[in-house]
Amino acid sequence: MDAYLLKKDFPVLDDKTLVYLDTAASSLKPKQVIKKLDEYYEKYSVNVHRGVYSLSYVATQLYEESRRKVSEFINADFDEIIFTRGASSALNLVATSYGLNNLTSEDEIIVSELEHHSQVLPWQNVSNITKAKLIYVPLNKEGRITVENFKKVLNKKTKVVALNYVSNVMGYVSPIKEIIRLSHEVGAVVSVDAAQAAPHMRIDVKDLDCDFLAFSGHKMLGPTGIGVMFGKKELLKDMPPIEFGGDMNDNVNLYDASWKDSPYKFETGTPPIAGAIGLGAAIDYLNNLGFENISTHEKKLKDYAVEKLLKIEDIIVYNKTSETGIITFNIAGVHPHDAVTFFDGDNICMRAGHHCAQLIIKWLEVVATLRVSFYLYNTIEDCDKFIESVKNARDFFKSVGF
Ligand code: C6P
Description:
- The chain is an alpha/beta fold.
- The protein folds into 2 domains: 3-21 and 290-393, Aspartate Aminotransferase, domain 1 (Alpha-Beta Complex), CATH 3.90.1150.10; 32-287, 3-Layer(aba) Sandwich (Aspartate Aminotransferase, domain 2).
- It is built from 14 helices and 15 strands.
- It has a 7-stranded mixed sheet with strand order 2-8-7-6-5-3-4, with helices on both faces. The chain has a 4-stranded antiparallel sheet with strand order 11-12-15-14, with helices on one face. A two-stranded parallel ribbon has the order 1-13.
- Helix 4 (87-102) runs parallel beside helix 5 (117-130).
- The chain is globular, with a radius of gyration of 22 Å.
- The mean pLDDT is 97.
- Residues 24-25, 86-88, 116, 118-119, 164, 168, 193, 195-196, 216, 351, 355-356 line the site of ligand C6P.
């Protein structure tokens, strides 16, 4: 895999001075995906499932073809793939439809401080309404979820386990397969937040045996406004829709109505057609490269950058042992928002703040952090520019008395 060559696929990188290190927030989009979106808008930009004319039939075929691609991408069945607005709405769908209808005050929900707000807040809401108890897995001293610590909180009252596959702040890969196996032993269902996993590693929902899994298209080269919720069909069958309206219904009477089967009962109204088609193109692109190549490349860049970062005075790296392409760090005494403004001056895009994961930021006992996230289009040259900018930032802020 030649990242220098791949850069040519990404129009935003026509600006050769730009160093894009914020893929965990959203990836850049290759022209292969943009072309597919253009094609839909230029040639078939009509609604799906409704029109009894050829153009609508073509649009429907393209939309459903993307569902097939997504199902093969994560080894699910076709009707287990629900298109949503993104990972957040997918995770909310699980909590609202499954959680609100299956939990009582006798039950427990396991989450962790390592979660993105989109995984923890929907379950806080379920807990507030149903009075089911929210239980946090104690993190180990590195801030990881471990099987050993998970066993300490798992018990017969656990009905739902809602955890991340990869943390968006620490980049750690959770031992999710073993967590799922243990959860099933006590009869709990597991909802996996795979927003930071799907862009970087092969996911096999059958091998994991997870009950639900969510991710977003825009973090994996796809368009914004499209996400995926996977659910096992035996669970989806009994789950009620959470939005009502066009296309999700079967028979409608004055005072009641019936719903289509999954996935359609969860896809109310005109779906994100272009988004789904673009996501299919993104999956083709990733499959072509192969996840082995992608993750090896990201890890190489991350290890290279961490080694150099640690040689700079006043740099604190919070996740030295992470297995993925995310580095979370600070320059001692410098607010991350000041630092990130300095980096922007060097045309380097990276994130500063709590990364929509305040619980882990509080756990780290800091106000915010800087975060770099590598992807397939980043190069050693990007790392070198980033390191140079960090050195300059550190020297500048020290010189003005920070
Ligand atoms: N994290 C980040 O900069 P949406 O925004 O719905 O596409 O994805 C939500 C989400 C859920 N889980 C995890 C682990 C995530 O990282 C994200 C999005 C971005 O870290 C934006 S806050």
